[in-house]
Specification:
The chain is of the alpha/beta class. It is 25% helix and 23% strand. It is globular. 43% of the residues are buried.
Length: 367
């Protein structure tokens, strides 16, 4: 009798475990991040971009990497308990940003698809066809559009024009959660950066998703000084064919005092804004230059005065301007000049060669 009771008890416990397990596996998970928080997942998709925003129960996927990453992203979302997306965004139509979104849209419930107004590509045509087959609303947010997203606000800042270069047609988004701001730039390059600056938009951000995988043709000095990010995230592939991120960009970020996070070195990077805390799941590279908190009035606006020998180049007389950190030299008219404290003023190529400097890829000075 006792043995029979033990057997029945064990059977009941087994049934309870199975039922509980089934509820856990099949039950709908409604919270994907801590309450009243914003989680920004910079996904490791090799030489591409993908950013997942989660605020309370709202979800937005921005880009997806190349087509082969579509199902990897679906699996990543499943691990978080996410089976539907409120918004999917393709910042622009290149394969390394929009390519994987076709599989995502085809396999998940999607509320809205946002596209840029730009030249169509095979990737964008496939994506539009997948969305149309499921009657997913497709639209292009106009610059100046603001939308509520969980407890955050998303502002669409650009592009302000249609460009020859599809990279400059990238949708630019600023996500604000409490006092924390994230600027997401797709592959925007200096042409579109200058347009945003000329429009006198509020570009200041705590976290910058660095444009075009850290290419030297993005993240110009003036743009970077205006954004003034304490943290910078670069999405790029291990040993990629483009040499991303370029030394010029890394140098400029270091000059700005930005801590750098790279997906090729760290994998997926998650930033969480909760209350007054902004935390990362990985440790970034600490800059050698101090960060200057302009918002709190801590940035110096003056430069020390020093005596300069008559034969030494100055800001007014220099033929070339070198960068102490990157060991790159520029023409004085270059858009990628380093900040003042990192400049080396040079009179001649002889002085350039003596310093062991290499020519800038933007202004292409004589060598």
């Amino acid at each position: 009798m006792k043995r029979k009771l033990l057997l029945i008890t064990a059977l009941i416990l087994s049934v309870l475990i199975i039922v509980t397990g089934c509820q856990f596996l099949t039950g709908t998970q409604t919270t994907f991040s801590p309450e009243d928080s914003l989680a920004v997942h910079f996904l490791d998709v090799g030489q591409g971009d993908a950013v997942l925003l989660v605020d309370n129960n709202e979800t937005m996927l921005i880009d997806s990497g190349n087509p082969e990453y579509g199902h990897e992203i679906i699996d990543y979302l499943a691990d978080l308990g996410i089976t539907q997306l409120d918004y999917v965004v393709a910042t622009h139509n290149h394969n390394d940003h929009a390519g994987g979104l076709t599989d995502v849209v085809a396999n998940l419930d999607v509320g809205n698809l946002y596209l840029t107004d730009s030249e169509e590509t095979k990737a964008s045509k496939n994506l539009i066809a997948a969305a149309a087959s499921k009657n997913i609303p497709i639209s292009t947010p106009s610059p100046g559009t603001a939308m509520a997203f969980g407890g955050s606000v998303i502002n669409f800042l650009g592009p302000l024009n249609v460009h020859e270069d599809v990279n400059d047609d990238s949708l630019v988004m600023k996500v604000t959660h409490g006092s924390h701001r994230f600027l997401l730039t797709g592959d925007m390059e200096e042409v579109a950066e200058k347009e945003l600056l000329a429009a006198n938009l509020d570009l200041a951000a705590d976290v910058l998703k660095v444009g075009h995988h850290g290419s030297y043709s993005s993240t110009g000095y003036l743009f970077l000084r205006t954004v003034n990010p304490r943290y910078a995230v670069i999405s790029c592939g291990v040993n990629n064919d483009y040499g991303h991120p370029h030394e010029e960009t890394l140098s400029r970020l270091n000059d700005a005092g930005s801590t750098i996070f790279r997906t090729d070195l760290l994998g997926t990077i998650i930033a969480t804004s909760e209350g007054d805390q902004l935390n990362f799941n990985k440790n970034g590279v600490t800059p050698t230059q101090p960060y200057q908190d302009v918002d709190n009035g801590l940035a110096s606006t003056t430069n020390p005065v020093s005596e300069t020998p008559a034969n030494e180049a100055t800001a007014e007389t220099a033929t070339y301007i070198g960068n102490k950190n990157s060991k790159v030299y520029h023409l004085p008219s270059c858009s990628g000049l380093p900040k003042e404290s990192n400049r080396i003023y040079l009179n001649s190529l002889e002085e350039v060669h003596a310093q062991g400097l290499t020519p800038c890829g933007i202004c292409k000075p004589p060598s």
